[in-house]
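Objective 1.3, modelling of assemblies. Example input:
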Amino acid sequence: MRVDRVLPYGDRALLVEVADLAAVAAVRAALERAPLPGQCELVPAARTVLVVLDRRPTDLDVAALCRLSPEAPGGDAEVSSVELPVVFDGPDLADVAEMVGRSVPDLVAALTGVELTVAFGGFAPGFGYLTGLPEELHVPRRPTPRTRVPAGSVGLAGPFAGAYPRESPGGWQLIGRTDAVLFDADRDPPALLAPGARVRFRAVS
Amino acid sequence: MLTVLASGPLATVQDRGRHGWAAIGVTTSGAADRSAAGLANRLVGNDPSAAVVEVTAGGLRVRAERTVLVAVTGAPAAVRVAGRAAPFDAPLTLPAGQVLELGMPPVGLRTYLAVRGGIDVPAVLGSRSTDTLSGLGPDPLRAGDRLPVGALAADEPFVDVAPVRPPAARPVLHVLPGPRRDWLAADAWTELTTRDWAVSADSDRVGLRLTGPRLARSRDDELPSEGLVPGAVQVPPDGAPVLFLVDHPVTGGYPVLAVVTTADLSAAAQLRPGDTVLFRVAP
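Predicted structure (tokens):
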């Protein structure tokens, strides 16, 4: 892991830019282990980690971020493992199978056979961008987003898989649905798919 | 206990927001004008964490079910208690059974009503705030709602009246560089910080849409989504900047050109559709 750049972001934040999702995870893990003084939020994304402070950032913070230890998110002290029950009957399942040149049962076998990792959240409370899909299962978003995607829908888009915590508009290819409670503000932790969690789909009917 | 008789266009319960949940997609939210909400709490001797009512464009009417100490701050709506003019930016007693009413503020947008003890609705993820984007927290207020009063009173209030300037008609907001200045054309920063910008009707607690010169991009590829903060000035493909406020999405996929300083976020929250705003480079 190497920090490419630390970009300015107003008087309460800095944006750490890195090469890939593995580096994002490493930066996030490093800053969770050893937070900057006054660090109040970390927002991992695809190529960046936003570091929000309760004070004005200084050159010392920039230097500290540039020096982050180049370790993988080791320790794995609190990595959670989630098995997500999925009914594979989504409206786009057959289209996706055709796009990736497989039968539906083969596609389901491939999807349930991989271990995914929550790379980051951000779209809605409890939504996690799952990475780890083999490249042959990457499919584009739908050309026209749906205005209503039901809560619990499981979808694919580009390198990501994800599950909608609540009804919203969305352009992902819907392959199935889960009845898992993805977000519950009264639960600890509230999000089932928090950054860093390992996830497997389990086919149910 | 307060009973809501009328909410006006939008009235919500707000405190200092939810902190530490951005990584799972939960934004901070909270009072849009933190200065005015904090002042309202101080005037009634509340703990700074107490929840207040944020009233958008006036129109709130509430009845006290027992005698309470209240204060109204922010956008200077006319305050009437039992039909008579009552002071603004000052503690005042609302006797049991009487109605407090807020008019439409002549300037500014958001008026705050604090009650000694705080509005005691259930907290969600540590905050009583309504996040209008995700729906977390209590629903916006409606006629008939009953608002319990809590026990978050701290000191006895000792300030009679707070000398506060009303929101400026053409406020100047100070900006610092955002992370993606290089994704915009070379003149975008100058355009932002020298021209007049109008607040469009399509503005809310999530953000203000601004109209003015179109800000051109210097590159057309897609920016991977990245974290946002309140005050971030993002430039979507149509070139009309969006200034994010407290209910901003946690991440966004368009370049952030500039960031309004924390000290000026309260002034930004008082802008209303049709207002003109200026941006200047922060010292």
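The radius of gyration of chain A is 18 Å.
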